[in-house]
Design a protein that fits this description.
GO molecular function, one term: metal ion binding
Pfam families: Cytochrom_C
Strand content: under 5%
InterPro entries: Cyt_c-like_dom, Cyt_c-like_dom_sf
Protein name: Cytochrome c domain-containing protein
Distance between the termini: 75 Å
Radius of gyration: 30 Å
Keywords: Heme, Iron, Metal-binding
């Protein structure tokens, strides 16, 4: 009889412990699901904003500056390969970017840089991309495209 009472007590204790832990687990899981849902909503919103940003002139200018300053290793398939870094200094890169966005009919964020940017472009970029930006016989990327190939690939 004493053994039965001990066994009943152990079963009762285990059941109560199980129910308490299950309740805590459910509460924790609910909180995590709520957090995950908020995170997912935030990530979706950020992704949507990033997709919209990728089509902005500001993004285009920063992309062009980045390629001038750091080169491109996107393997876009052009005959002369990837662009190396350092064809112009950082200050000139900003001005070149302002000019290059005008090649596809866009308004740069700093229109006052376009004239000087054109001069830098002709002396640093025109030899490969052509004075018109179309990329000399398809050997180099066409900079007059609505969306540059490197951005399109992203």
């Amino acid at each position: 009889m004493k053994q039965n009472l001990i066994l009943i007590f152990i079963i009762l204790f285990a059941t109560v412990a199980f129910l308490i832990n299950r309740s805590r687990l459910h509460t924790t899981q609910s909180n995590l699901n709520h957090i995950d849902h908020k995170k997912e909503k935030h990530l979706h919103q950020n992704s949507k904003e990033k997709i919209e940003d990728i089509h902005s002139v500001k993004y285009l200018e920063s992309y062009i500056e980045d390629v001038i300053n750091n080169g491109s290793s996107q393997k876009l398939g052009f005959a002369y390969g990837d662009m190396q870094a350092g064809f112009a200094d950082k200050d000139a890169a900003k001005k070149i970017a302002a000019y290059v966005v005008t090649l596809s009919g866009k308004q740069p964020t700093h229109p006052e840089w376009v004239k000087e940017g054109h001069t830098f472009y002709i002396s640093n970029c025109g030899g490969c991309h052509g004075e018109d930006g179309k990329g000399i016989h398809g050997t180099f990327p066409d900079l007059t495209r609505e969306t540059l190939l490197g951005i399109e690939r992203r």
